């Protein structure tokens, strides 16, 4: 009896099955090895954390100049090639307390997508950074002889991770600046920033190849958005060209900083939009529109800051002259508006102190530029001088000339004169009981020469009053009485006004000053030295008249 034979092809059919099983076992073994290696690497990474933290901290400190860091934790994932730093604290050597920065999380990891194009680059994410800067720390940085670009910040970051950084993101950043102890801080919160192509991998021939955007909350209620492109590889510092949009930023918080230049800011909000370009080759600012609404601005002149004020004005004037018509610097302010505002000048050094102001002010400045080719700038201001006299100032000026050039017209109608008594007492040692001041003027400067006129008109003038004479000395009463008599001599019988005209002419003390400096000089000469001498002329005429009358009576 013959034994059954195996079907033909049975041996060849079993071979693939055994091959598949073997391959499956090899794949499972490989996966197990990979998992075991990954698990080992993962476990090993935790054992290396202490060594990594010490190395990162030491390396970063070796790169920094004038600052040092302390690192709480560091964790390196070998499989993902990810490095995470936690509780990074940065201190300034000159003023270590408080820290200038506190960064809860800073992570680095490989940018896998770029590996396919042959580039080995990484990304950086900074989570919840808190920056704190006070006046001593800022002053130390300003006076630091080492430029900020040479302080090693970029080298310190790049030394942490072996790959070049190509993408940066910042989440929920916070910045606080305190000008003085106890002063309300300047606070920028909710900062979000993202920037790509930092290493110019894409569009390498573009001047600004790296796109970025940022947004933040400014001074608790305002907002700032910035978007544009940058070139982080420019030397000696990065270049940027960006659009900006500012909305509803409250200005009162700026007062602690503005007080350093004798300016007090109360209330007001700022809204603006425009473009900015800043690089080693060019600086350009174009403001399409800027509006400051309901602000109270007060410039305070103090005896102890007189010298500093003069130096500051001179320095600003030299800076303006330096950038005028400079090809690499372009400033173009299309329109600036101050609406529903008040402008004050307070002289605390006068005896008695006095304040001059314009309330309900609306000011518009258009076509302001530092290049002559842009033509004349224009100014238009309306308001109420001393809260009572409707005021209109209008004209044009050339902000970019080799010397100051402007022509302005001024009209002030029926300002209540008693509101000017502190000024009259400080400058003319007199005061009035009743009356109104109306003033018309045209003032100009060109080629270093002043020209124009000031015509003040006094109506219903009463200098000497019975209620005022109770607490005044005899000589003071006599002077006011004589001025009152002079007013009668100068009075126009049809209009019941006292008029005097002062012509303005001559050379500027310094023809190389800025347009603003020249305007201040001309106004000082025209008003303080034209209105008050009007009283003096009336006093002299009244004295002559009184003497002649006495001789006739004798």
Briefly summarize what is shown.
The protein is of the alpha+beta class and 554 residues long. The protein has helices spanning 10-63, 135-142, 153-160, 255-258, 306-323, 421-428, 474-490, 515-553; strands spanning 67-77, 82-92, 101-110, 121-127, 130-134, 164-178, 186-195, 210-218, 222-231, 239-250, 263-278, 283-301, 329-347, 354-369, 377-385, 389-398, 405-416, 434-446, 449-462, 491-492, 497-499, 502-507. Helix content is 28%, strand content 43%.
What does this structure look like?
This protein is of the alpha+beta class. The chain has helices spanning 10-63, 135-142, 153-160, 255-258, 306-323, 421-428, 474-490, 515-553; strands at residues 67-77, 82-92, 101-110, 121-127, 130-134, 164-178, 186-195, 210-218, 222-231, 239-250, 263-278, 283-301, 329-347, 354-369, 377-385, 389-398, 405-416, 434-446, 449-462, 491-492, 497-499, 502-507. It has a 22-stranded mixed sheet that branches. The termini are far apart.
Secondary structure elements and their pairing?
Blueprint: H1 10-63, E1 67-77, E2 82-92, E3 101-110, E4 121-127, E5 130-134, H2 135-142, H3 153-160, E6 164-178, E7 186-195, E8 210-218, E9 222-231, E10 239-250, H4 255-258, E11 263-278, E12 283-301, H5 306-323, E13 329-347, E14 354-369, E15 377-385, E16 389-398, E17 405-416, H6 421-428, E18 434-446, E19 449-462, H7 474-490, E20 491-492, E21 497-499, E22 502-507, H8 515-553
Parallel strand pairs: 4-6, 5-6, 12-13
Antiparallel strand pairs: 1-2, 2-3, 3-4, 3-5, 6-7, 7-8, 8-9, 9-10, 10-11, 11-12, 13-14, 14-15, 15-16, 16-17, 17-18, 18-19, 19-21, 19-22, 20-21
């Amino acid at each position: 009896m013959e034994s059954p034979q195996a079907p033909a092809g049975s041996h060849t059919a079993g071979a693939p099955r055994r091959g598949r099983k073997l391959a499956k076992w090899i794949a499972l073994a490989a996966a197990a090895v990979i998992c075991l290696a990954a698990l080992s690497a993962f476990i090993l990474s935790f054992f290396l954390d202490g060594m990594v933290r010490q190395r990162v901290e030491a390396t970063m400190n070796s790169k920094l100049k004038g600052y040092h860091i302390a690192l709480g934790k560091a964790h390196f994932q070998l499989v993902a090639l990810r490095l995470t730093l936690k509780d990074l604290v940065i201190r300034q050597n000159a003023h270590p307390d408080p820290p200038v920065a506190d960064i809860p999380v800073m992570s680095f990891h490989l940018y896998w997508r770029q590996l396919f194009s042959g580039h080995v680059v990484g990304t950086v994410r900074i989570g919840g950074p808190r920056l704190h800067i006070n006046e001593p720390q800022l002053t130390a940085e300003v006076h630091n002889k080492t430029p900020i670009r040479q302080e090693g910040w970029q080298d310190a970051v790049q030394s942490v991770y072996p790959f070049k950084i190509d993408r940066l993101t910042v989440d929920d950043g916070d910045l606080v600046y305190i000008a003085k102890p106890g002063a309300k801080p300047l606070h920028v919160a909710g900062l979000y920033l993202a920037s790509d192509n930092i290493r110019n991998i894409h569009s390498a021939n573009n001047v600004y190849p790296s796109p970025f955007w940022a947004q933040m909350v400014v001074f608790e209620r305002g907002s700032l958005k910035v978007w544009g492109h940058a070139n982080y590889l420019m030397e000696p510092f990065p270049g940027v060209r960006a659009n900006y949009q500012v909305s509803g930023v409250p200005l009162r918080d700026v007062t602690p900083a503005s007080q350093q230049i004798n300016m007090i800011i109360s209330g007001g909000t700022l809204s603006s939009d425009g473009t900015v370009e800043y690089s080693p080759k060019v600086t350009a600012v174009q403001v399409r529109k800027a509006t400051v609404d309901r602000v109270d601005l007060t410039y305070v002149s103090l005896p102890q800051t007189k010298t500093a004020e003069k130096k500051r004005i001179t320095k600003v004037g030299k800076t303006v002259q330096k950038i005028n018509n400079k090809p690499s610097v372009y400033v173009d302010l299309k329109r600036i508006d101050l609406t529903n505002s008040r402008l004050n000048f307070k002289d605390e050094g006068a005896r008695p102190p006095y304040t001059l102001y314009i309330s309900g002010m609306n000011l518009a400045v258009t076509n302001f530029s530092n290049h002559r080719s842009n033509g004349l700038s224009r100014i238009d201001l309306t308001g109420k001088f001393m809260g009572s006299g409707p005021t209109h100032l209008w004209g044009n000026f050339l902000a970019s000339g080799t010397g100051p050039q402007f022509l302005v017209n001024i009209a002030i109608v029926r300002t209540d004169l008693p509101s000017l008594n502190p000024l009259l007492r400080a400058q003319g040692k007199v005061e009035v009981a009743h009356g109104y001041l109306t003033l018309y003027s045209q003032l100009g400067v060109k080629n270093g020469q002043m020209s124009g006129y000031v015509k003040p008109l006094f109506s219903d003038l009463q200098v000497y009053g019975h209620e005022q004479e109770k607490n005044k000395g005899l000589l003071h009463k006599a002077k006011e009485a004589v001025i009152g008599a002079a007013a009668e001599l100068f009075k126009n019988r049809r209009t019941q006004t006292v008029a005097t005209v002062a012509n303005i002419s001559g050379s500027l003390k310094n023809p190389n000053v800025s347009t603003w400096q020249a305007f201040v000089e001309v106004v000082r000469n025209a008003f303080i030295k034209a209105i008050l001498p009007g009283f003096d002329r009336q006093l002299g005429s009244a004295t002559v008249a009184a003497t002649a009358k006495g001789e006739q009576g004798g």
